[in-house]
Amino acid sequence: MIAEIGHYALVLALGLALIQGVVPILGVRIGDPVLAGAAQPLAFAQFLFVALSFAALTACYVASDFSVFNVFENSHSAMPLIYKFTSVWGNHEGSMLLWVLILSIFGAMVATLGRNLPAGLRANALGVQAWIAAAFYLFILVSSNPFLRVANAPAEGRDLNPLLQDIGLAIHPPFLYLGYVGFSIAFSFAIAALIEGRIDAAWARYVRPWVLAAWIFMTLGIAMGSYWAYYELGWGGWWFWDPVENASLMPWIAGTALLHSAVVMEKRDALKVWTILLAILSFSLSLIGTFLVRSGVLTSVHSFATDPTRGVFILAILVFFIGGALALYAWRAPMLRQGGLFAPISREGALVFNNLFLTTACATVFVGTLYPLALEALTGEKISVGAPFFNATFGPLIVPLLVAVPFGPLLSWKRGDLLAAAQRLLAALGIAAIGIATVFTINGGGPVIAPFAIGLSLFVMTGAIVDLAERVQLLRQPWQVSLRRAAGLPRSVFGTAFAHFGVGVLLLGVVCESNYGAERIATMKPQETIFVRGYDLTFDSLVSRQGPNYRELIAKYTVRRGGETVGTLEPGKRSFAARGNSTTEAALMTRGFSQIYVSLGDPNADGSISVRIYHKPLVLLIWFGALVMSFGGLLSLSDRRLRVGAPKPARKSAKKSSLQPAE
Amino acid sequence: MKRVMKRVMKRALNWIRATILALSMLGAFPAHAVQPDEILADPALETRARDLSRELRCMVCQNQSIDDSDAPLARDLRLLVRERLKAGDTDTQILDFLVARYGDFVLLKPRLTAHTALLWLLPFLILIAGAGALLALRRRQRMAGVSIRLSEEEEARVAEVLKKEGL
């Protein structure tokens, strides 16, 4: 019964979406505020029904109702409760349901939070949002229904893919989807603006918070996915340039570009046509990502099932929305007026530079991901495009961008002074140079490029600090004055500084992990010891354990440093009876930002076991950097100027804030 | 004495149990990437082997290099690479050998050929095209007479006003 309620609620949501896709837009067209205003209650009702549907599926999972085919395929009665919840989206059908749930949440949020939006823009945007929703409801109902029943209910389920039985599944997909789907708001607003044929700086102000929120979630989602792969897959890698990873990276890069170009649009009324295009592209890339992952074109742990009809269906959605949006853009964009002139060396110029390189980097990932598919379809020739290709192309493209990061915020709007900015960055350049020299001295014969990359990361980090220091006139004024100035700075200034600082932190982690790591591959007998980077790892014993739905073989290690025990490590191997497969459970020991990573191989007949031991210097900075970036985004999001619906500041306070350095 | 015996017995039993468990699991687990027995004695050759392995695709896997993969085929290829290295082949010779045997699919970094020229050149073409478009846009703005620089006349007026204000 519960499954049927969920199914029915989804059908009703589809009905509501169809109405919402037509009535409000018609209302705006004929100038009827009642029809146009229907969008808000409709969006809210849609959310309620999708939430009901999602709750129904969750209830089926928690109750282990194996008469529902989806539950039977992906759950097991002995599975811990948390995984019963998360396995709702640990499969194709359920994950699509999560997708539309998040879409409806965003729709309802626009309806409730967007009170200050112009009525026409909001009605049109919600209308477009409903088209997207309707397409995906239809997709779920026709080709991916999670509520189908089995005639004779089996007694036991087939269990969730063991790789997915992890806390990562609770965080990674929802966050990533919040990002993917969040870009749909920017898309809907862009289409709404094109329908109206009118766009101004205020548009950027409405859209930026949504883009920012989506970007924060996506940053966290990708970082979490990366860390999950790092500890779960057992060979210590954190980014594989896998097509599925690229599918999430592309909208992230486009979204990052969009964030920056929207600033120009909001502040200077320039780059409008380009920003609209980026808004369309960001969500288009999200859709392409969904297509690549869900259609079975690519096979990976993410593509739960391959079914050609699904692929064709998503492809149709893709062609309709991307093709339609771009056609509308080609038709309407020339009518939009450009404004706000600026010199090449200016804040705007720096942001254009950022956009040029980010777009190229995004295109590189796009081409590298799809080229093998296209080539095989056209010529039948099979080639591989893997990590070495991306490292060779993406890497060099990112370097100029990173060099430019500290300069951007120091240039003034309209016309900037590059030399003055460079002078103010002297401290950062000095620290970078000292860093490079230090690394070269310590590692005389090591890698050649890595010290420079470390220097670059230091430059980006100190550059972000210099930006703040300049604004509060640190050391040039008494510290009380500096402190007062800091309190008066808009939060978005801190947001920028934190986000840019995070980029430097991330880069530092990446460079150190990939250039200065140590690795030991060995067969170890009990009581044997291996030495790695100042740590002695002794293999004590091999034991077995019984988990709730798996058996586990564990190797116990004691880690000593200079004779003193610093801890134990228990890497394991789990075998899951229900699916007959196994996972490697790596053991990690965190020392500062570095980690010791132990992953088990095969046990041998003589009681020995093959093992991989890594020392990964500063590896945690990779994800910490992403966290800092997200925190910067959050600070920026909390800036009152960005909050939709924030009242205009009173005249007096506006005057007061104009005394602060211009942002 | 008895207690000690018991403890020893218990230990032994535990050990036997673990060994049996380990044995029973032998078949259940996939082999691990880069086995200890594969490693070459010469560290320089081994480093080259690892570097080469990262450029070669495990053809039965999903986008994994043979260095990362635990598939039997990847192990065979790793051993093959090391055999050729010991025989004194250069890196290029080894890659050529593998391409001749398995086709271009085995390379994770495709070689520059007529069919992959677009793949390699597109990033740079896009960058150049983007920069070109920006320059063209700028020139068009300048041609249309829109300039952000002040004319001489305007500069003079600004100077005059500033002078009047005593700045």
Helical amount among residues of chain A, as a percent range? 55-70%
The count of DSSP E runs of length 2 or more, i.e. the number of strands of chain B, is 0
CATH 2nd-level architecture of the largest domain in chain B:
Orthogonal Bundle
State the end-to-end CA separation of chain A: 58 Å
Fourth-level CATH superfamily of the largest domain in chain B: Cytochrome C biogenesis protein
Sheet with most strands of chain B: none
Largest sheet of chain A: 6 strands, antiparallel
Share of residues in strands of chain B? under 5%
Mean pLDDT of chain B: 78
* SSE class of chain A: alpha+beta
- What's the Cα radius of gyration of chain B? 34 Å
Description:
- The complex is a heterodimer of chains A (663) and B (167).
- Chain A is built from 21 helices and ten strands.
- Chain A has 663 residues and is an alpha+beta fold.
- Chain A has four domains: 1-164, Four Helix Bundle (Hemerythrin (Met), subunit A), CATH 1.20.120; 166-336 and 343-404, no CATH class; 409-516, no CATH class; 518-616.
- In chain A, strands 2, 3, 4, 5, 6 and 7 form a six-stranded antiparallel β-sheet that branches.
- In chain A, helix 13 packs antiparallel against helix 14 and helix 17 runs antiparallel to helix 19.
- The termini of chain A are far apart.
- The model of chain B is unreliable at 17-31 (pLDDT under 50).
- In chain B, helix 2 (43-55) crosses helix 3.
- Chain B contains six helices and no strands.
- The N and C termini of chain B lie far apart (103 Å).
- Chain B has helices at 2-25, 43-55, 72-86, 91-102, 117-143, 152-164.
- The relative contact order of chain B is 0.06.
- Chain B has three domains: 1-30; 31-111, Orthogonal Bundle (Helicase, Ruva Protein, domain 3), CATH 1.10.8; 117-164, no CATH class.
- Chain B is an all-alpha fold and 167 residues long.
- The longest helix of chain B is centred in the C-terminal third of the chain and has 27 residues, at 117-143.
- The interface between A and B is large, with 61 and 54 residues.
